[in-house]
Write a structure and sequence with these properties.
Four copies of one chain form a homotetramer. By secondary structure, chain A is an alpha/beta fold. The first copy, chain A, is 43% helix and 18% strand. A seven-stranded mixed sheet of chain A has the order 2-8-7-6-5-3-4, with helices on both faces. In chain A, strands 9, 10, 11, 13 and 14 form a five-stranded antiparallel sheet that branches. At the C-D interface, strand 1, helix 1, helix 3 and helix 11 of C face strand 1, helix 1, helix 3 and helix 11 of D.
Chain lengths: 343, 343, 343, 343
């Protein structure tokens, strides 16, 4: 147990109480193994309904790196590469997981961590020397991005149009998709993302589940035989019920978005406190991450009571912090933090 | 929910009640992510104590295929192959997961699914054409085997001696290690297995956990940097606490072996009922799997009430079934099954 | 230089004199790199003509293991496996090259090294447990086989029909395709093989070239982007002219089959000498490999003058040899060998 | 055959006449296959002598991408990455070959294509987030670089010292090592490179051979079992004699460096003509590549007679060309080119 209250990330606690209740309530029901249990079927149904396609291919896996490596290696042929922002999770935080499946990541610096059609075109232009360069074949974006920023419907539509024009696949990493879709500025729905992409995933781990991400595949070439790839990469749980049950609970009545909205709201409150106290933000607060630039003396004081990441020195005598709220963040801790910020 | 009572496998239910209680009790404690939580540290401590080495390298992953593919690909160099019985799980039930990491499996037919020094030597002899054949470098055995049979201390010691003599690594798949160590005929302890092997894993999924296997590595070359490989293959859970907590609960006071013994006892009861009713067994019952050869008429009757695998026709008018008991198998269902067998 | 005359293999000498002459004649002509030279284009044209498709996809690589690993990994998706006889070159003599690209080989014992529809069906039946087993997707056969035996047109047609029925790809390793097509019993032509398969290759190394194999792909899914895969696996030679020129020379006027026929004829002569001297053959002589069973005393005598493989003890006081003839085998050495056999 | 004289690259012709003569002279000598022929042994001896270690591990392969992918994948463990300049051949011109073996390339922009200790340190600092990032484990440099620039003894010594301090492996791509070591400014010898690195290779293809690169490994961990990896990646030629004979010829009396010096001299002559005619160079001419910036009218005139790469627009009305000389470049063509430059 941590001795100070943590705003370090959105996965420091267990899961929402309703998930624990559902686990307890169903614990001794016998279910078919390997994801063919009733809970998984129901959860798939809820997701199919949200994306507007009863036949959408939906699979549950335990974590985000699995979701990424399974989908990308399923979709690509040996000579295909995937395009990512330099800050992309597959490039920066997955220990070469994509390369370990045999594929190159082609990166490009991207403001706010967001790819654009022109950035993608730059990568295409630089990697066109047939057959001496891996073929750019897929575009990978995260929404929200690794920097907490958002893709608007216009952003994603433009990328999708380029992809279809250039015969590229489009894949969205949704580790924090809940936070994105619950943002004030968001104008995307799950059905839009389904329509605009070839595959994406909906993160559970950072939105109230114990573990679990839901991969949704629209492209039938990728969807075909997807279960083989899940099994081959070690992601097919004997007790798939554990994943299915959590997503059933999160999606049966909107709990999922209730939780991500709540985290965003708390982030907005903290963000507002920062600026109203006269401090600056290193990045606009769009989801559940706040990047305040604070005087080092205040940071020292805050750290007596709270845990958070210090992203390094900013202007003289100041540093940038990263604070993250979540489904589990306590209201009174937010209040206390705000009090200290304003003091 | 299944409509008949199932003896199909040992992963049809959730988890032991104590695990659910522990999850609830700790749910909102904030813990460090990625396996550095206190529960995981405690669970590792219990395992280190059982294997008799406070510095034993222990890691938790969600499932058995991950445990196998991570450990094997961590241990082998590109040109190395792993030796397995033809019935080995990595050969028969993992969708080419080992090959997907680049390594060949060299198989040999093995009575009762058990490798022996002479079978291993056969593989060495057949694969010695340098440099035209992949180099046999690791021996993979499962205990209990995929057929429910056991390795004795003498068996494993002989294999270990050959491995050390021939510079081979020895790796034990322990998906049902609990069942093995709880068997009446067993004379191995965890500390023996640790001593005799380079790495092995202890299965939680089939012994009362929701998910989870504990990989234990003695060989320091393999142990070094193991965490990188766990992360690279997508097996590092943000909420590693889920795995740690379950193993803490299973190992803190012997619950794990209590559960596996109970399943073995029920299997023995059913097995005895089969033979005392005058029927034969296709394989001796050593752990929690029973392979009765029953008249088809009786099978038809049993299947009105129970679910199980039919392994195919045996002598005229008979078939072989596979029945599996588990930590969750209900006593009254065992009694009812025995009653019908004896009727 | 060897001190005794060698019948060990068909790659102990350099290349046919005409290839050396062509190399010298064209040496200082400047040519476009990476296989786009005029000689490669001409050679492709000759092959396209022989297979009866002007648009056939043809690529040259330096060796057989490259031809196999490039084509197989190009054709398969991550979860796909390739079916081979237990004696297949990819299984027995390529150091896990196919597995190193991520794919499982599913093997089956095969009389004379030849697959049949029923053997293939056996593999399909044994590997049907979705999604727990790699999906059988390609059939690999060698013609001539690793044991020197042949596929007839009827054999290959039956396999091809099964493959198309079961949605399997068919791939022929042609390391000794010249020997096969030049055999007395052969009734296949290159155009048949093209028609019946998805891809195959024509071996140059064992038929008079210095190095080089010609991969021919009929299946357009595999043919697409094939050049990327050749480059990615390190097989795209800067001076692709070296490969193209040799195949141009071998195929422009039938030299290739002249050479393979000559080797087969010499093998037939030796084989006849063996039997007419009263000795037995371990396998019928169909191509350029002879497997005589000789008295050890005779073997000792032969080995004073000749080199060959001793395949091990046969009946009492006898052993089985493997003798190989080639485009370069000297007539007087064949005569001397025959003389000693008959003595 | 090209219609204009080509300065496009150093692999447009066949090979030096002495190699053709040696091929003819030895053609029908029977030799042991797979690189154990006498010519390969002799060639290895010459190289071992030059690097000053009679036990140096030397292997021959057909091309540079094979040399790179075999050595890098042999040396690295699954979670290891290789550091390269952004312009490195493995990053820019090998179609993801390194990633196809499972390893990430960590790149850094590098002036003149040259890595330095501080650039390498930058990569180490950026990739230190254990275990979420692939571990930087090897440094890859090309000498001469892809831009024709050189590493001095001081440069390479500094990199080597950092590598040993940080437990990194150092690997030199020597596709144009001959050009580098023959440069006027060069102060490195083969024995220095051997001493300072863990492995490197000596390019034959661009220095008068038909095909072939010689991999030299000093690090015994990498050298061990190297032959398996050569075979597994498809690079073990049945007629290894073809590679060995060429290197024997190139190294038995200094032909290799004679040829690379001659190409460098021609490049210097052209370079001097460029500057004495009043034109600028985009990069200093250190080896056999010249990058003149010429008026477009002059370029148009030159292109009536010569072929070369146009690297794109420079200052107004000018473009940058790449001209390459080689062992085969004709003196009279150089003279004609110089005449046109000066006209």
């Amino acid at each position: 147990m941590m001795t100070k209250y943590s705003f370090m990330d959105d996965y420091s606690e267990g899961c929402h109480a309703r998930i624990l209740e559902a686990l307890a309530a169903t614990n001794l029901e016998q279910q078919v193994a390997y994801g063919d249990d009733l809970y998984s079927l129901e959860a798939k149904g809820f997701i199919q309904e949200m994306v507007g396609d009863q036949n959408a291919c939906v699979h549950f896996v335990a974590g985000g790196t699995l979701a990424n490596l399974i989908t990308i290696s399923r979709a690509l042929r040996p000579h295909d590469a995937v395009i990512s922002a330099e800050t992309g999770h597959i490039e920066m935080r997955e220990t070469g997981a994509i390369e370990a499946t045999g594929h190159k990541i082609l990166t490009v610096p991207a403001k706010d961590g967001k790819l654009t059609p022109s950035l993608i075109q730059t990568v295409l232009d630089k990697n066109a020397h047939f057959p001496h360069m891996a073929r750019p074949k897929m575009v990978y974006v995260s929404n929200a991005t690794e920097l907490g920023t958002l893709y608007t419907k216009q952003d994603l539509t433009a990328i999708s149009a380029l992809c279809r024009d250039k015969n590229l696949l489009l894949f969205v990493d949704g580790a924090r998709l809940g936070a994105a879709l619950s943002a004030q500025k968001n104008d995307l729905e799950l059905s839009d993302i389904y329509e605009l992409t070839d595959a994406f995933w909906i993160g559970g781990t950072k939105a109230g589940a114990l573990i679990g991400e839901a991969i949704v595949v629209r492209n039938s070439d990728i969807a075909e035989d997807f279960a083989f790839c899940i099994k081959q990469r070690g992601a097919l749980l004997a007790k798939g019920r554990l994943l299915g049950l959590q997503f059933r609970e999160l999606f049966k009545d909107g709990l999922y978005f209730e939780l991500t909205k709540k985290a965003n709201r708390q982030a907005a409150q903290i963000s507002e406190a920062v600026t109203s106290a006269g401090f600056e933000l290193a990045a606009i607060t769009e989801t559940n991450q706040i990047f305040p630039i604070l005087p080092d003396s205040l940071i020292e004081k805050l750290s007596e009571r709270f845990q958070f990441y210090n992203w390094g020195a900013a202007e003289e005598g100041h540093s940038t912090l990263r604070l993250v709220t979540s489904w589990a963040t306590e209201e009174n801790q937010v209040e206390e933090l705000i009090k200290q910020l304003k003091a």
